[in-house]
Amino acid sequence: MSTSEVRKSAEDRMAKSLDTLKTNLAKIRTGRAHAGILDHVQVEYYGSPVPVGQVANVNVIDARTLSVQPYEKPMVALIEKAIRDSDLGLNPVSMGDNIRVPMPALTEERRRDLTKVVRSEGEDTKVAVRNVRRDANDGLKKLVKDKEISEDDERRTQDDVQKLTDKFVGEIDKLVAQKEAEIMTV
Q1: Which of 60, 85, 103, 185 is the most buried (most CB within 10 A)?
Q2: Per UniProt, what is one Pfam family of this protein (predicted)?
Q3: Domain total of the chain
């Protein structure tokens, strides 16, 4: 393994952590309807749990309403129950073979709670990025010990990995700030 491989591996892993953060932040609702909010809601389909998006078509009707149209008629009640039982605090309404999911307005207290969740997600991602940095530095120390690279190469690559870490931590802070602003706007 070379220094460039260590650096590339660290960058890839940090990018994956950032992508995971983006996905997790998208699931946190802001009072606006978006189809991705139901992504982690699981519904029982022929004995196995599957995401709602695999058994129904989820569309945004307006800023505060989702439409869920199951592919099979018997799934209406199951999907409605799964959405109601989820931790999202939504109350779906069945209209024939279509389900409407109105998004309730967020209270000030709930907005503050959601910003705490957003900050927590950001911190978890920063920890993941720092763990990647630690792993990369450990890998570099092992390469020096095995005499595959010089100590100068190790220091240069550690500096590169630190710059990468700083860059990703900055992006995480920016994403968290954007999401907090989005949640706090009424």
Answers
A1: 103
A2: RRF
A3: 2
